[in-house]
Amino acid sequence: MPVIPAGYEIGRPRRDDLPSLPAIEIAAAALFPAEDLAPALQAESDPPSFFEQAFSAGRLWVARTLEPATPVGFAAVTLLDRQAHLQEIDVLPEHGRQGLGRALVVHVIQWARAMDFRFLTLTTFRHLAWNGPFYASFGFAEIPAPDLGPQIRISLEEDTRMGLDPSKRIAMRLELRVT
User: Fold this and answer.
1) Domains, the chain, ordered by start
2) Which is more confidently placed, 46 or 39?
3) Distance (Å, whole) CA 136 – CA 33
């Protein structure tokens, strides 16, 4: 089990948690340097349908305070190239630096292993300490360009179309089981 900071819990969201998740995503985006995150990405979140789909598929988890039980972070997984893909993870800045992000990642890793995925993948910034290096601390490694699956390649291309510098982006994977 992930080590969850005192005063918090991680679990499946309740349906009434879903409307609060876009605000968490936007607040977390404010931590990114302006030169890294296109202005539109700093002001917009994923659409409500993204959260609804992740919720319905059982691939959404929230970190919440215990009293009152209020969402302060979340992790959402999609499937890319038939593998689990950590699509989004965010924690409200005022609840950051306490281990909630780490606990959410561990929770997702445990879920992906239990679901018998070979890899857990993600795309992120390579140069920001709380991105590429953070995920490397779990054992994630850069996916060599020839090994990128078609859907991850498309995801990186979409990042570029949205205004993200492709030289700062990285696709990473964690091997969950050896075949």
Assistant:
1) 8-175 (3.40.630.30)
2) 46
3) 21
